[in-house]
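Priority: low. Protein: HMG (High mobility group) box-containing protein. Input follows.
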Amino acid sequence: MTTKPGANSDGRPSKPPTAYFLFMRERGDEVKGLSGAERTRTLSTKWKELGEEEKQAYNNRAKELKDAYKIELERWKQEHPDEAEGAMKREPVRAAVKELRVSRGASEKDLKIFFILAHLKAYAKEHSGATIPATKRAKALLIERFEALADEERAAWQTAWEALAETQRGEMREFYESWAPNA
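Result:
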């Protein structure tokens, strides 16, 4: 296995692709004319439709590449002990930063759901129980409002979301999916 040019400035071997990304690379030409999002969506659907044997072939190739990567990484560490030590010191910091991002609470999708449902509830309260129809336009307008929030406002929504019990969060997700399954 060779390093990708410019992938790691210290010459360290690059991590190998997963089975899914091997599939994406291999089948990329099939969807060449599509936009990036459409290409990803199409290939993702094809990946989900693959049989277990076909997926296993990609998993086996990914495992072989990962094993080769581990061997090459060990060789690199032995040949570059000073650089390897610096790289190893960075790894716990990267892991801590990643953990912090994950532990921050609600995902962007959850915050959007929470925001939209709060607006649905406020609308019903102001209009004697009337509801906003579940249309793509209504959903798009509410998402647009959410995305226009200032950081302080988002932080307030984040805090309110974190104050909810997990059962309430689950109920909100379920209600949202039933309100706008195709919107």
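The chain has two domains: 19-103, 108-179. The chain is about 70% helix and 0% strand.
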